[in-house]
Amino acid sequence: MFIIVTGLNHKTAPVEVREKVAVAKYRLQDHLHYLMEKQGVSGAVILSTCNRTEVYLSTGEIELAKGVLQEYYGKIANMTVAEILPFLYTYEEEKAVHHLFRVSAGLDSMILGESQILGQVQEAFQEALKAGTTNNYLNNLWQKAIIVGKRARTETFIDRQAVSVSSAAVELAKGIFGDLEGRTVMVLGAGETSELTARHLVANGISSVIVANRTFARAQALAQEFGGLAVKMDQFHDYLKEADIVISCTAAPNYIVHPSDIERIQDQRQNKPLFLIDIAVPRDIDPLCASYPNVTLYDVDDLENVVQKNINERLKEAEKVENIIIEEKENYFKWVCSLKVVPTIVALKEKAEGLKKKELDRAFRRLGNLSEKDKKVISSCVSSVVNQLLHDAILELKDASYSTQGLLYAEVINKLFNLQIEEAPEKTRVESH
Q1: Would the pLDDT of 49 be above 60?
Q2: Catalytic residue among 50, 249, 337, 381, which?
Q3: Do the beta carbons of residue 274 and residue 244 sit within 8 Å?
Q4: Do the Cβ atoms of 307 and 169 come closer than 8 Å?
Q5: Which of 84, 126, 161, 403 could pair with 310 as two cysteines, CB 3.0-4.6 Å apart?
């Protein structure tokens, strides 16, 4: 049995193509059942997010599975195979496993190390379990992928450093205030960037939001979303003293926050820290504002420097994650290799057990009336001899299964002992795990 994945993501396909092949959660099981009806498919899992759609199959026929997947993507995208093919990537066996583990760890994400993908990997597996389209190979593979994702986030710092302007602002704010509970943020300019930064701050505990914007209706709409207060832009100075954090991103051609504004509120604030975040270009806040005690100012370049530093740190952590991936990949393929010799081990033990029972029954008949104690002693002695004879052979076979010699050893033992190995069915569907 082999593992193959075919997919497309933010690196290989534009959003207008990605959206064509995205599979809504309520449609996943229908798509999985469709794939399972195709010849050569023994198991299927679909991972579909806003940035990727990937189909993982277990199959006994790699080339047949490739054709199935290409046809599938063409069908759901309403494109010919020739049209969809340039956007697709396909990985087999070791490369397929490595790819899934990188995805689960966040190494293949748009934002390196992001955590959301691990939950999406888990959900994809659960949907496949509900649909009954997994098998032992996919079950074990997905469990290993989830282990990789969890280990990446507990044993490294791959997701600890902020790598966006808005998340960097939150990180810096926590460095100044510690807990953000009870703090107030003032948003100057209700554009996308300032809104996103405010949203991150609110998600991290900010309890009060004041929004000022030249278009008052927009200020009202944003303030209402946060349960905050909307004020007119020319009135924000009257509320500045209440803010602990100020986010400014307007289209003003000149500074709108001046040193005199800070000086005016210093006494009223009683030396409480004030964090100014200027993400406007041209800048909204006069750099001299940072000259006052307990006032910290970061402009967009400062924030980008923080982000770049954190990205570099994540890249270092990514090397540690790759080591985890290599370790878990080896564990997975050791398990896969061991499956190749399991039927031989089972058949060998069953044949030995059958011969032992047959000869013991014959011996007990010839020996006449034996006590139950005597029978147990003789049975125990025979079992011990059989187990010792098989022990080394089975141990060597298990060790060999981790290498290319495993199948050769199994074939030799099958022939020497005339073992009858039952073939596993092509499609093994698992309802739960």
Answers
A1: yes
A2: 50
A3: yes
A4: no
A5: 161
Question: Residue with structure tokens 């604030």?
Answer: 269
pLDDT digits (tens, 9 = 90+) for 116-144: 899 999 999 999 999 999 999 999 999 99
| 207 labeled binding residue | no
Query: Is 182 known to sit in a ligand binding site?
Result: no
The DSSP call for residue 402 is T
- Measured distance CA(234)–CA(249) in Å, rounded: 15
Element (DSSP H or E) covering residue 229: strand 229-232
> 222-271, pLDDT tens digit by residue?
999 999 999 999 999 999 999 999 999 998 999 999 999 999 999 888 88
Token couple for 131:
């649909």
Predicted confidence (pLDDT) at residue 176 exceeds the cutoff of 90: yes
In the chain the domains, ranked by start, together with CATH numbers, are 2-155 (3.30.460.30), 165-307 (3.40.50.720), 334-416 (no CATH)
Both tokens of 433, joined, read 């795990």
pLDDT at 431 (0 to 100)? 36
The mean pLDDT of 149-176, rounded to a whole number, is: 87
d(CA 55, CA 32): 9
Q: pTM above the 0.90 mark? A: no
7 annotated as a binding-site residue: no
Q: Please give, one letter per residue, the 3-state secondary structure of 178-214.
A: CCCCCCEEEEECCCHHHHHHHHHHHHCCCCEEEEEEC
Q: What is d(CA 78, CA 362) in angstroms, rounded to the nearest whole number?
A: 70
Active site residue 249: no
Q: What's the sign of the alpha-carbon dihedral 167, 168, 169, 171?
A: positive
CA nearest neighbour of 53 among 81, 26, 24: 24
277 sits in which H/E element: strand 274-278
To the question of whether residue 191 is assigned a binding role by annotation, the answer is: yes
Q: How far is it, in rounded angstroms, from Cα 240 to Cα 220?
A: 18
Q: Are 186 and 285 in contact (CB under 8 A)?
A: no
Q: What angle do CA 186, 187, 188 make, to 5 degrees?
A: 115
Q: Within 10 A of 78 (CB to CB), how many other CB atoms are there? A: 10
Residues 6+ apart with CB under 8 A from 220: 211, 230
> Please, what is the end-to-end C-alpha distance for the chain in angstroms?
19
Q: Reduce the DSSP state of residue 342 to 3 states and report it.
A: helix
Measuring CA to CA, how many Å separate 404 from each of 213, 341, 343, 409? 69, 12, 17, 10
CA separation, residue 64 to residues 40, 68, 423 (Å):
6, 6, 20
